[in-house]
Structures are given as C-alpha cells and as structure tokens.
Amino acid sequence: MNNKTAALGIKWEDILELVFDSRIDSVGLNERVDSLATRSIKKESKLDALNMIVSMCDLTTLEGEDTEGKISQMVAKAITPDPSNLDIKNVAAVCVYPSLVSIAKEKVGNSGVKVAAVSSYFPSGQVPMESKLLDTKYAIDSGADEIDIVINRKAFLEGDYRKVYDEIVALKEACGDVHLKTILEVGDLKTYENIRKASLISLAAGSDFIKTSTGKLSVGSSRQACYVMAKAVLDFKNLTGVSAGIKVAGGIRDSKDAIRYLVLINEEMGDEWLTPDLFRFGASSLLDDVLKQIKKLKTGAYQASYYFPRG
Amino acid sequence: MIEIKKTYKNYVGGKYVRSESGKTFTLNLKNDSFEVPLTSKKDIRDAVTSSKAGFEKWSEISPYTKTQILYRLSEMIEGNKDSYVDLLVLCGSTKNQAKKDVETAIENIVWYAGLADKWEQVSGNLNPVNGEYFNISHQNPIGVVFSLNSNNNSLSSLLNSIIQPLTVGCSVISFSEESSIIALKFAEDINNSDFPAGSLNILSGQFENVFEDVSKHVEINLISICKEIPNEMLTKIQENASSSVKRIVNMPSIDGISSILPFLETKTVWHPKGT
Amino acid sequence: MVNWEYSESVESQEIVNIKEKYQNFINGKFQQPNSKKYINTISPSTEEVLSKIVISNEKDVDNAVQSAQLGFEKWSNTSPHERSKHLFKLARLIQERSREFAVLESMDGGKPIKESRDFDLPQVAANFFYFAGWADKIDLSWGAKSLKPHGVVGQIIPWNFPLLMLAWKVAPALATGNTVVLKPAETTSLTALLFAELCEQAGLPDGVVNIITGDGTTGSLIVNHKDINKIAFTGSTQVGKLIQKSLAGRDVGLTLELGGKAANIVYEDAAIDQAVEGVVNGIFFNQGHVCCAGSRLLLQESIHDEFVAKLEKRMQTLRVGNPLDKNTDIGAINSKEQLNKIEGLVNEGVSDGGKIFQTECELPGNGFWFKPTLFTDVQPSYSIAREEIFGPVLTTLTFRTPQEAVEIANNTEYGLSAGVWTEKGSKILWTADRLQAGVVWANTFNKFDPSSPFGGYKESGFGREGGRQGLLSYLKAES
Fold first, then answer.
1. pTM
2. How far, CA to CA in Å, does B199 sit from each of A49, A77, B66, C221, C300?
3. Is C257 an active-site residue?
4. ipTM exceeding 0.90, yes/no
5. N or C end of chain A: smaller count of CB under 10 Å?
6. Contact flag A38-C274 (C-beta cutoff 8 Å)
7. What gap in Å lies between CA C224 and CA A128, rounded to an integer?
8. Which of C291, C292, C387, C465 is catalytic?
C-alpha cells in the first residue's frame, strides 16, 4: 500500500469486483465515438481549443539518439512554442528518458514547464521489479516532476492482475508526491475490456494519470481507447471521489484529431477535465500542426512548417 | 332393432363438449341425418380460452416433434380410412370419391408434416445489412387462428382449412356448418393423437350466429375464411376486425410456401458483431 | 482554463430553392390542381412560412389514380431489367443531390441536419439501390411464379421521416412492378415534391410515380378511390384502424405500419455505458418522433439508481436547438399540434405521480420545442407508460426477473419493436424469442437497413417493409 492508496482506503478486493464487471460492446462504443467526431468546431471555439492543446502538450523525445543538444532544442520550443506569437504560452511538460532528466530540468529553469521521465524500463517493462524501481528512483533523484511508467503487460495478459497492481503500488510509493502516469499500452491489450480492466487496476494502485501508449508501437492512442479510459476514470471517481487524469500519446498527428479528443473529454467527462492537470497529449509532430492552425486562423493563410523552429 | 346413433359433440380444450346452450341443429345428409351442436357465443369465448392455452403448448413443441405428431395423424387416418369413407358415403360421395378424398387428405398431411421442421428455413433468412451487425429475420406463428371451413363434406377440404396454421405452430378453432359431421368425426383422431389440448378445437354451428363475436374477439389473432360468404358479412367481419387490427384472410392459398405465410409474423433480430 | 463552448456551425440554406407554391406531380409533370385550397407549410424551428401546398380534392385524386393506371400499362410493358435500371438511376440521383434534400428536410420537418445528412439521406439512397436489384429478380425472391403486382398503389406517409418513408414505400412498389399515388404528410411535403423533380430528371415513364399533397381528407379520398388496388399506410394506429375499416369488403391489398410503445430492457449484466447510449439513441433520435422508439425503459431493479444517474448525466449533454446547426442533437418538434400532445401527456405523467427529470437547456423563442425528458417512479398503469407519446419523453419501469421483463414488455397492444441489453448470449435469445415485436434490437437500438424487414405485431400493423419479406407487401398470389 502506498500513501495514496492508503489515503483512498481502496482495497484490492474492492477494485477486483469492478474489474471483473467490465463489459463493453465494441460496436456500440465505436458508434458513440464516431458520433462525437461529427461535432463541428469553428471560429473562436477553435482558437480556444488550439491554445488549450498547446498547454496540454507533453513535448516528447524518446530515442537512443537523444543528446543534450536535442534536449535543449526541445525545451526551448516547449517554453516558447512560436517565437512569432508570444501569446502562445508554454506547453505542459517535456518528456525524456531518465538519463536526460537532469539536463532537461536545468534547461526548463523556472519556465513552468515540467519535466517528465519515462521509467520502469520503458517501453517493454520486461525486467525484474528491482530494476524498475531503480530506474524510477534514478529519474526522481535527477529531478523529474512526473514519472511515466508502463504496466506489466506480461502479467496482465497472463491474468495475474494482482501482480500488475502490486508493481504500480510499489512504483507509486517510490514516487511519493511526484506525479505518476501509468501507460497501459492499449495496442498490446487489444480489447476494450482489457483497456478498462488495466485502467481500473492502475487507478486503484494510485496512479495520478493513466496513459494510452508508449508511442513505440504501430498502434498508438485512439479516441476509442481514450473513451474507455474516460469511463473508467469516471467510475473510479464515483467510487473514491478522486479525479485522475488521462494522457493520450502515439499517433495524434494533427489538430483536427486532437480537437476530437477534447470534444470527447468535454462531452463525456465535462469541462473540469479540460486542464493540463487532468488531460495531456504526448506529442512531437502534433504541436507544429497546432501552431500552424493558430497562425492560419490569425492570418487567414495556410502555413509552412519552416515558419516554426524545430523542437 | 333400434339403431343407436352416435352423438357428435364439439371438441374444445381436448374434451368433447356439448354447446353450453344445449342447442343442436340437424344436419340432413344425403343418406342420413345427425344432430350436432349449435355453437353459441359463449362457446366461442370458451374455445378462444382453450386455444390460447393450446397455442402456448403447441408453439413450444419442437419442430421435429411437430413433424412426428403430424405424421402420426396421417397414420391414424390411414388406419381409420374405412370409417371416413363410410361417413363420406353417408354424406353423398361415391365410394371412389370418398376413398380419393381421404387419400388426398393423408397425402396433404404427410406433405405438411415434412414442412413443419423446414418452413423456417424457407421463410426466414439472414439479412446482409450494412455495418457490423448480425441480422436475422425469422417467423413466429401468429397465435390463435379461427378458420371457417367450407360446406364441402370432404376430409381434404377440412384439412386444407387447418393444416397450414397448425404446421407453423398456431392453434386453430375450426368452425364448420353443413360439413360439420366430417370435422366432428375428425376430432376423434385428434383426441387420440399427441396434439396438446386446445391446439385444435372443432366446433359446429351457424357462422351467422357467431361471426360478430368472432370478428370482435381481440384474442383471435387471425380469421381465415375458406368458404364463400356474402360480401355484407365479409365487410362486417373486416370492419369489426379493424378495431384490433386483426388479420383477415379470405380464401387463403392452399399449397406451397404462400399457404403458410399469412399465419406468420416476421421478427427481425439485430446484434452487433464485435470483440 | 477557458470555458469552452461550441460555436454555432450552421449549414447553409442556399443550396435549396423552394418555390412559392407547389402543384401536384401527375403523369410526369407538375400540374395545376383542381382544388383551390392551399395551406402554408412552415418551418417548425422558426415558424416561418416556407411555401404553400395544395389540399388535393376528389378530382385531383382521380387524376392521379388515372395517371397511375396509364402508368401501370407502361411500367408493365417495361422489362424488369429496365425497371431495375430506372431505380438504380434514381438512387444515384438521390446521392448526388443528397445535401440539398437533407437541408430541405431539416428546414421543413425540424430534424437535426446531423440526422438528415448522416441517416435519412444515406438510407433513402440505400433503399433505392437495394430494391433496384430486386426488380429483375422477383422470381428468385420466394420461388413462387404466381406473384404479381397489385397495380395502382396508394401510399400515405407520415411526417417523421418524410423522404425516407417515401423511399420505403416507392422503391419496393416500383421494383415489384406497381405504380404509385403517394401523399406526403401535410406538414412535410417539400422533399417529396423535390423527389418528383428527380423522377422527371431520371426519365421515369409518366404516371409511374404520382405525388399529390393534402391532409387527412385527401388521404381518405385515396383510400376510398374505386380504382386503387392496394393501400400502404404508415402513421398512427388510430388512422390505420380507420383505413382498415374503410377497405372492408373491398378487394384492395393493405399493409399498415402503425404506432409503438417499445420496451427497451436493460438487464443488470449489460454493458452499461453502451446501454445508456442505446437508450438515449432509442428515445431521443429524431426528437422521439419514431414509431419504434424505445419509449419504455425497463430497468432491472438492481441497477436502477446507477443507470438513471448515468442516463441523466448523458441527457444533459444533448444539444437542443437550430436543426441546421451541425452540433444540434435534438431539433424542433414537428408541429404545434404534436407539441401540445406531448405537453398534455407529460403533464398527465406528473399529475399521476411520476418523477420528472428534464435537462437544463435554453429553448429558442420561436418554433416548437420540448426538453429531453425522463420519468422515473412510474407505474405501468400511467398513461405515459401506455400511450405513444411520439416525443423526446422516456418512461422508466422496473423489473426483477427476465420473465417479468418479458411480461411487462408484452403488456401493450403494440408490437413494433423492442430492445434487449445483456452481455449474456443465451439470455438475449431467450428474451428475443418471447418478445412480441417485429424488430428486436439486442445490444443496439434504432438500426435500419433496406435489407432488414420492418413492421409490427398486434396493433402495430401488418406486413413488412424492407428485405425479401418486404417484397410480399407489393405482390399478390395470382391463381
């Protein structure tokens, strides 16, 4: 039990009942999500939405080739997304590997941009628990504000939900007050019912956020997965009173798609979730498209990528 | 020697009953005469009650068993062939005509016996709807059918007025006038068969006495008219039927798939196909 | 954070061109009617007068029927394959002009553009495509050689899906070789009249499709015309009964698509979130102006409170307003008369003791509107649990066992449709078998397809529309 689960008073048995109660009809769900995509967002609403998306972005680089130089570029972009339009405020966070946390932390300074680290042997998580803990503690010691871990899909798919839960509980305990985002890797889980079960287990174990994907699979986030997670977050809130956040990552390439996520969250969860404290986009290429769209709305002209500095 | 004549009664809910009114009427056949029940309005109501119960039972019986029961009926008629022929001769048929009539009836029953476990495959089907759905249309029996028999003293005519709804699982109230004697005789075979009580009820009487009540009775789901009736009477029946959107079939088709369609309601069921 | 509101996104009306007044479409062209009586057709969302339509009289009906008789001769001499091609062509033309039809439908009838654009019009085209292919394959449909068209078919359609009901009627009638005299509802005639233009454009032989406008008096003249061979009616059970009565003693075919009070049964082991969506779609689709609407929610007692809480929350997100706004979920009530009827029944529900929940939303000043409404604490004896309201009003009843659910579901004179929600397969089949309803939606609701037969048990009418069974409504066995 970590501090958070202790504070909530949630027992494994309580959550198990909810987990096994997971029943989802995929066709009905797809239909609902498709119908939400027909919402039409125009004019001022669109500008508001685009600015909101910028503020919710976790600008991300998670590559073996990441260097100090790359991190510096990205942080600069995170702080000032569009130097030609200073009305656009900083993004929510930058997201990096643990070994680059200290550099990122130094570069963000007091800009308000948070530093998130992926840990627990992102993206596969296929190591012993001790290694996951070590990885996580290292990132925290290096100054990470937020930790993104992966769930143990091996244990999950083998049906050992208790192990999945225990690992998250232990990692949250290591995090203390540091924000924990738990990645479900929906592309591995395949079914909506699995996504719901993993969401509930992660939430019960004390995660502050649940996150769709690592971005390392060909199947990343989807609005359908986000919908399943949104419903799980709401049901969890109903049970505990705790509002957890959702981060969608992987495959969200343009503004139109991102806006559809916001519509979904707005309709299903209400506008209290429309804040970087409770909703994030993991993004690399998305941000540029959003900046283009904002400029287009202001100038009336479609923009080219080279107007915006590299991140 | 004084001939002791058989008394024919109505057959309702699996029992031989007199008309509650106690009334009878005389059937003057070519070579004999009989007193048969004169069905009253109250008798109709009782028959509907029995028929409803009979429908519950008969419609629940599996198609395979229905086939067996219908086929067994053909065997029973075959076994009693001579007594049918004798009765038909009393009614005025030649012996040959009578034999032919009974044989036709038997052949007809055998045909429908073989349809009882197949019609759903012929009248129902999967529908290729757009989207991720399984969609199937199949048919349910419509319920309680009132069937007015023709005045022909003929077993095959009688069968043609009841076998189609029975095959698909409806219960039937069969009403005969001048041809009652064949129907009441046929009730004996039904009584010895495995038809559940109330699935087939056999009444004799004068239709003009009861048609108003029949056509207004909400729990009769369909009226099948297998006899030429005056247009004023048909009009009145259809007008009365409209108050409960009752189905009326006038001179129904007596062979092929179209002979069972009036007695069916199509039900279409949708279900998503997903994970 | 910004408080985020969707701005209006209104579909342009420029695409439609409404005439000042309309004539009847008879014998392949618009013709000056004999009747001098015109009425205004208004937009129910603004109460603006859109146009004038004629209330056709006896002479007009007679002209239309005569034209259809001549048309029947031509149509009978057209080969089945050619008839098929005519229908394919109509289908294609509908697709090409679907935006125009959709906008006009929403203006004239009040339904949200989202539905007229994404549901009605695609379904209209699909019906013509589907039945086009049957025209030259009737011999394959039932394996019976003796099936023949009736001849001249009178078709009387309602105002809830004006063009779609036209398609449901006209496409199978023409495919089976009949010709038609169609009367749209007096509040929603404009898309039918636009369809008439399409028939002209498609080169359909004159007299095959005749469209005359009018009210109930015109409808009754069609029903009682001596040369009509068949009537196909969609509308209220009350009028359906009158039609059945009028046709008594006449050798005229009849199919009736009447009212409903469908049970939507939610078992405790349902996928609850999808069930909530299905229930919402079941009753609020098209403002609840749907004969097969899931207007009686049957909840298993064990999930009643949880389900109602989720349902109310979801209802609150429904956007009521301008039908032409792409973000509108619920448009205008079709007419003042219908609004009065809904209000009357809802008031009765409240005074009977039902607990009412209505969403908080602002309704526009002009036009006819009704807030999405949910009743709980309802007894099966209340009129809101028995009568067809035909509006965005859902009535909740509870049950304890599957047997009880089926009993309550069937405890009505109607039998058009029903819904079942459970993740247990055998319970779906058990329940579906016992429901007296022509359409059973399991884990879904309000789904339609031209290949899927639709029609009622009991007092919801007889005959089917759609699918192979739908062909039988327009064919008779000829001995």
1. 0.95
2. 68, 83, 12, 43, 35
3. yes
4. yes
5. N
6. no
7. 85
8. C291
